[in-house]
Amino acid sequence: MADNGGLKVLGKADDRRLASEPATEPGKTTPDLMTLVTRAAAQMRQDVTALSLSVSPAKTSTITTLTGKILAAQQELVGCTRLLGGASPYDNTTPPLRSLITAVWAERVSALGRELSRYMEALVKKIQSGNDAYLSQTGLVWEAIDALAELPRTEADALVQRWKRDGGLVKDAWEEFKESLEDEDEEGENPFGDEGLGDDDFADLEATLGGNMTPEERRRAEAPLLGLHQILHATVPRYIPLGTITKALPSASILGAGSDFANAFDEAVGALSTGQDVADIKEAMGDLGTKARKVCNEIAERIRVEPESEDRKKALDSLRKWTEKLDETTKAWEESAFGMSEMMDAL
């Protein structure tokens, strides 16, 4: 038999209440807010588990208490997100120095709110008809809560997270390119000279690709042009924390340059993989080089305005070295009179 009291309580847990104005005190710093988020998330996870156990059989008083606590915790999370940006993350007044971190927090908290709404609907169905879909929905709510542990603490952290997420396009394009190549026995040219790439460069690249690279993959990664661009995209997260983010140098401009770079990489691979003519390939590779240089400039500009340090000096030197090698390799490639198969080998 349905528990009407429980149904009334669950029915009030709609999207409006899950995103309503909280009572969180203003003036909190990011560490303060993260402490509140961690506490609210931990309590919500316990209450969601307890609520799932209280609907079979339905216990009105328990459902009422736990639903109220879950709604209050979600409102606290929404409040922390709004206070982080100094305003609502859903309008245009968020300060640029926290625009990206606020957006990431808002996405995660909003995703949790949507899962909670579906969870409450599933609980109603359980009480009404005995449908057990609420069990799987409980797991989805847990996942959304656990994702809050990975919230970025700074604007730079948020930028690194977004950059790595967008790196999936570069990774997929690289896999597509590898599949289009025949295995080669001879050693490829090393664009970094006799020293080759450093272990850190390969560590970043391997992390992007999701596993250790074979000797053949390392050789191809060091090949001119495409490999150079892939390495740059994989190593940028190492440089981001070394630079500054200001109103004049916002995180959005780096992210935009990175998105353009990833799309250009995908276009270049497409030009190679679909057998387009030499002119189209040159155009695609030229556009990729332009977008990559833009990324280098965005990162270097932010590092230069920070106090000098050994790490920043090394980063600027690496970016300079990368740009010089790209110029050298691109010039040699454009001046060559290779046929299509030879061009594919050179890439």
Automatic annotation (TrEMBL):
Coiled coil: none annotated. Residues 37-183 form the Cyclin-D1-binding protein 1-like N-terminal domain. InterPro entries: GCIP-like, GCIP-like_N. It comes from the Eukaryota. Pfam families: GCIP_N. GO terms for cellular component: nucleus. Residues 11-30, 179-216 are annotated as: Disordered. This is Cyclin-D1-binding protein 1-like N-terminal domain-containing protein.
